[in-house]
UniProtKB/TrEMBL annotation:
Domain ABC transmembrane type-1: 20-199
Keywords associated with the record: Membrane, Transmembrane, Transmembrane helix, Transport
Protein name: ABC transmembrane type-1 domain-containing protein
Membrane topology qualifier: Multi-pass membrane protein
Transmembrane segment boundaries: 20-43, 55-75, 81-99, 180-206, 226-247
Length: 520
């Protein structure tokens, strides 16, 4: 594992740096806004205790809502990307700052306030020279808690295309690459540790300042020094982020943002697209491992320019249309509807058909004599189902199966990340799981068996690149570049690509590069 981590760091330093800076940028924006909201609101809750109770209760309720749920709630309103991610993180962080500000101001000793009044201090002077300075340790503790919560939760921003270190973590989970998970997780931990130490230092400096008299003309006060330092760091992060933003390369060609869903096949095919575009002279910004449930919003909200999609997914999950089983009719339908509704073009679809399926441990299949989904339905009450959540609700998921085969009365049903599916099956925690018919692990028939869809419930899921119309209009040669790639993709070679990553544990970008070199 150590060798894999070192290899990744030596070859992907710029990728890690970009993710690191994105994570700091998102976290810094959210923290700054949370402070601007939390401290004044905390003051109001202390000053007007009766009127402040509803405000305090509102933010306390927000605090118990999962961060990912808040992220997803903002998608219909704001789309995907940095803005909804930042707002969700702000809502997560404000309660800690607000409550600690309220508590800090409330615990100031009344005797000290009386002394200030006796010295002729005004209410304003009491507030800024007595109350807030004495409440500072508790306020800083609230800010420290909020900052660490933001940094940890910012990893989820990658699920809606906002970037950051979460991309490494979710890509690692999707590819079963623990080296990526460790690099991303350790990086987040290091940022949290640095921020924690910074707040400890700030509290120490301010505490020392309150008990010592500074000589006149000795320079900026400690607080101003720290604020100036933070401002310089924030400016540097902003400049780096702006400097790496989209535009054109030296050849005058546009920067193309290529996204992918959060599982092996989509990531690998997306990388093949990216390499093909780079080979044609384009600069490519990769946006990997976006949650399948939000990637459509990511492209329609102009966070990415293109990604690999599946005809059946477009028909049923995005367009919510009736099922069609003819591949050409499905393609023509999604092509027309996407162009009308979303200004998105479906390029040529490939022969690779990554259809929906169910995988079962071979030992369990042999034990109960299960070969088809009809067999499975009869034994469902004896089996543990490892779902990926959305499969239970999608029209082409469990509802479609139950409409054809009858109810699946599982012994138990739990939701797991898609990248953990085969680990869950292998460990015996689950017996059956949704699968796609090109997954590399399915080559290991001693361990896993793909069940036969004997009633032919599922429609075709042919793989194709989809591109925003404005991007295609400005760069028409993209169609020819990606269509040439699609023409080479078959169910067999896509399964082999997946196996190279998931079974042989090769680097996904290396596998993609090798495949592209073989077809160009």
């Amino acid at each position: 594992m150590g060798e894999k981590i070192l290899a990744y760091l030596s070859t992907n330093g710029s990728e890690l740096q970009q993710a690191f800076l994105q994570h700091i940028e998102i976290s810094s924006i959210a923290f700054a806004i949370a402070v601007v909201i939390g401290v004044p609101c905390g003051y109001l809750c202390w000053k007007h205790q009766r009127g402040g109770k509803p405000l305090l209760a509102f933010f306390q309720v927000l605090r118990v809502i999962p961060s990912l749920a808040i992220l997803l709630l903002f998608i219909p309103i704001m789309g995907t990307g940095v803005l909804p991610a930042s707002i969700a993180l702000v809502l997560l962080a404000v309660p800690a700052i607000l409550m600690n500000t309220t508590a800090g101001l409330a615990q100031v000793d009344p005797a000290i306030v009386e002394t200030g009044l006796g010295l002729g201090m005004t209410d304003r002077q009491l507030l800024f020279k007595v109350r807030f300075p004495l409440a500072t340790p508790l306020i800083l503790a609230g800010m420290k808690t909020a900052a660490i919560e933001i940094i940890a939760s910012a990893t989820l921003a990658a699920k809606i295309g906002a970037g950051g270190l979460g991309e490494l973590i979710f890509t690692g989970l999707g590819l079963n690459r623990m080296d990526l998970v460790i690099v991303g997780g350790v990086s987040v931990a290091l940022i949290s540790l640095a921020v924690s130490l910074l707040f400890d230092l700030l509290e120490y400096v301010l505490g020392t300042h309150r008990h010592t008299r500074r000589k006149e003309g000795s320079g900026m006060k400690p607080l101003k020094q720290v604020v100036a330092c933070l401002a310089v760091v924030g400016l540097a992060v902003t400049l780096v982020a702006c400097g790496s933003a989209g535009g054109s390369n030296d050849d005058g060609k546009a920067t193309v943002r290529v996204g992918s869903k959060d599982f092996t096949e989509n990531i690998v095919v997306s990388e093949i697209y990216a390499i093909a575009l780079e080979d044609a002279g384009y600069t490519v910004e990769r946006v990997p491992a976006v949650a399948s449930s939000v990637i459509h919003t990511t492209i329609t909200s102009n966070e990415i320019d293109l990604y690999p999609e599946y005809t059946g997914t477009g028909l049923l999950s995005v367009l919510n249309m009736d099922m069609i089983t003819d591949p050409e009719k499905v393609y023509e339908t999604v092509k027309d509807e996407y162009d009308k509704r979303f200004d998105i073009t479906w390029l040529d679809y490939s022969q690779a058909n990554d259809g929906q399926g169910l995988v079962i441990r071979t030992s369990v299949a042999d034990q109960y004599g299960i070969k088809t989904i009809s067999d499975l339905q009869k034994h469902a009450s004896e089996l543990n189902f490892a779902s990926q959540g959305e499969f239970d609700a999608r029209e082409d998921g469990l509802p479609a199966l139950e409409a054809a085969y009858g109810t699946f009365d599982w012994k138990s049903s739990k939701v797991y990340d898609n990248g953990l599916k085969y680990s869950v099956l292998s460990s015996g925690e689950g017996d059956v799981s949704p699968a796609y018919t090109t997954e590399g692990q399915l080559t290991n028939t001693d361990e896993y068996t793909l069940l036969v869809d004997d009633l032919q419930v599922w429609p075709p899921y042919n793989l194709a690149p989809i591109v925003r119309n404005d991007v295609l209009a400005a760069n028409p040669e993209i169609a020819d570049i990606l269509n040439k790639v699609s023409a080479t993709l078959t169910t067999e070679n896509v399964t082999a690509l997946n196996a190279a990553v998931d079974v042989d544990k090769r680097e996904y970008d290396e596998v993609a590069r090798e495949y592209y070199d073989s077809i160009k």
